[in-house]
Known about the structure:
It is built from six helices and no strands. The protein folds into two domains: about 10-90, MazG-like (Helix Hairpins), CATH 1.10.287; about 90-125, no CATH class. With about 130 residues, it is an all-alpha fold.
Amino acid sequence: xxxxxxxxxxxxxxxxxxxxxxxxxxxxxxxxxxxxxxxxxxxxxxxxxxxxxxxxxxxxxxxxxxxxxxxxxxxxxxxxxxxxxxxxxxxxxxxxxxxxxxxxxxxxxxxxxxxxxxxxxxxxxxx
Length: 127
């Protein structure tokens, strides 16, 4: 059952906070510990794709067990991100939308469509 269209970030933050509160984990949820946990979980996600070509990485997620494992790792990352947002009392929606606005100016679509590097800095690489 897909719930992305119906679940708010606020609801996710509240669910994560309730999970943490029920276990009295707040003393362990310092910005340092949570940011390290995000990096550790991101490394676990990267490990799922390590040594695979781009095509192999896309193909492997067609396997239901591998797709579920990737979803679990991604969920761990998001949970820790939401926990950090809670610990810092940071409005995640504002942060994301603000960063997108910054990146809109930094990477204009007409200049970066199909590219991932600045032409003036690096050889113009096409995707």
